[in-house]
Amino acid sequence: MTRALTRKGEATRARIVAGAAAEIRERGVDEVRLEDVMAHTGTSKGQLFHYFPDGKEGLLLAVAQHEADQVLLDQEPMLSNLTSWPAWLAWRERLIERYRAQGVKCPLNGLLGQTGRRAPGAQAIVTGLMWRWQNAIVDGIRHMQSTGDIASEVDADRSAAALLAGIQGGVLLLLSTGKTDHLEAVLDLTIDSLRAGARTA
Amino acid sequence: MTRALTRKGEATRARIVAGAAAEIRERGVDEVRLEDVMAHTGTSKGQLFHYFPDGKEGLLLAVAQHEADQVLLDQEPMLSNLTSWPAWLAWRERLIERYRAQGVKCPLNGLLGQTGRRAPGAQAIVTGLMWRWQNAIVDGIRHMQSTGDIASEVDADRSAAALLAGIQGGVLLLLSTGKTDHLEAVLDLTIDSLRAGARTA
DNA sequence: CGGATTTTGGACTTGCAGGTCCATTTTTGC
DNA sequence: GCAAAAATGGACCTGCAAGTCCAAAATCCG
After folding, report:
1. Mean pLDDT calculated for residue range A43-54
2. Mean pLDDT value across residues B115-141
3. ipTM for the complex shown
4. I want to staple A149 with a disulfide (CB 3.0 to 4.6 A). Which of A133, A144, A156, B77 is the partner?
5. What's A99's DSSP letter?
6. Where are the alpha helices (DSSP H) in chain A?
7. N- to C-terminal Cα distance for chain B?
8. Is the distance between the Cβ of B44 and the closest atom of strand C smaller than 7 Å?
9. Which residues on chain A are in Cβ contact (under 8 Å) with B167?
């Protein structure tokens, strides 16, 4: 069932996904027609349905996966190396920088809303992203606990959950306000709080 | 310019907004057709465009405003009386209870995504909601500072921003996971953090 | 009451975006 | 080089949902 894809085919498919993703990031999910994707990627309708037999649904799913992966990739290598306080701050910087650059254009917010309900797959993609993200944070906290930089009494899972939620909310508010104030406040206060745990221990 | 609205007209308009809001909450913005609203509210197409000359756009805007107001109303009277630690906990309980009941159905998430980009008004509604919400939290923190329950060194605005972001993210994650874990973690840890500030002071 | 205005119902129009189809060209593997 | 398979282009179809229009009923107000 794994359809045979020529090298050329593979390239075209990737070009479609990347182009659609860019278009969606720029103008929002429901403003992007299949024809826009065609124009923007230099492809024909035949190609779209050749590579995505399920039509827009399938394409959107592929785009969502692409964007989800990108979110984590953009945080590397910091996210996987939360092994010292400077490393945490570097991660903080990267996050803010990334989202400041992204501004009001959120790829996943719309995708979740659009495909979230009808496609069971979209939900899974977002859930998977959050799960991987939170796990990385948990790993970071655990590591800091192993070195004594964070008190062992701290509940790593719970703290990571709160931090992740804060980040998501911070980004959400960035979409409304256009400012990174909330995101910065969350990161600073939460990380400070983790730090304070070392003294309390 | 304020169009003349009979008592009956006023009632019909309200019925349309409330019905549309319910429908949207249940099935999502882009799954709801004007005909669904008509069927669900017992109105005709003529009525819809009579009360909302701008069509779906205007209706969605009215629904968004309706839902935004509801969000804050649902937190009263707790939100306006964050004057003691038990009061804060009561607010916490109300929030979790409310969102647990709401579950995966988020009215504003979709509305923001749908109308957010094209309608400048939708953005304003969400921004206004967040602003009022955050202000209420700031007032709570300030009051607690005036009674010495929170250290005066705490930056009320910054803390409120972080808390609000955490709540938003917690709700967002509730939409993905179906669990209130993140929301609870954020509330508990953030409020604890504010509390700790009293001792540090 | 009675004329003006608002409210209501529903048939009709319209545009458009997703999806289908097939003919043509290119690539693949032997 | 040549058949089979994959890639491409684009004309065409179709359904649907938003929006238009007007005529009939209800309501308001002097």
Report:
1. 96
2. 88
3. 0.90
4. A144
5. H
6. 7-27, 34-41, 45-51, 56-73, 85-102, 107-116, 120-146, 156-177, 181-200
7. 56
8. yes
9. 169
- Rounded Cα–Cα distance for residues B162 and A83 (Å): 24
Of A30, A130, A188, the CB nearest to B173: A130
CB A20 within 8 A of CB A59: yes
- Asked whether the beta carbons of B165 and A185 are under 8 A apart, the reply is yes
Do A95 and A167 meet the contact criterion of CB atoms below 8 Å apart? yes
Chain B residues touching residue A116 (CB < 8 angstroms): 28, 175
For residue A120, the model assigns a pLDDT of 78
Q: B125: distance to nearest CA of chain A, Å?
A: 10
Q: For B35-64, how does the pLDDT look when each residue is reduced to its tens digit (9 = 90+)?
A: 999 999 999 999 999 999 999 999 999 999
> B164: which 2 tokens?
């609000």
Residues 6+ apart with CB under 8 A from B144: B82, B83, B84, B88, B150, B194
Domains and CATH numbers, chain A: 7-53 (1.10.10), 63-200 (1.10.357.10)
Give yes or no for residue B124 having a pLDDT over 80. Answer: yes
pLDDT band at A1 (very low <50, low <70, confident <90, very high): very low
Residue B2 has pLDDT above 60, yes or no: no
**Residues contacting A197, CB < 8 A, separation 6+:** A150, A151, A153, A154
- From CA B113, how far away is CA B116, in angstroms rounded? 5
Locus of tokens 């949207």: B24
Angle, CA A145 vertex, CA A143 and CA A149 arms, to 5°: 105
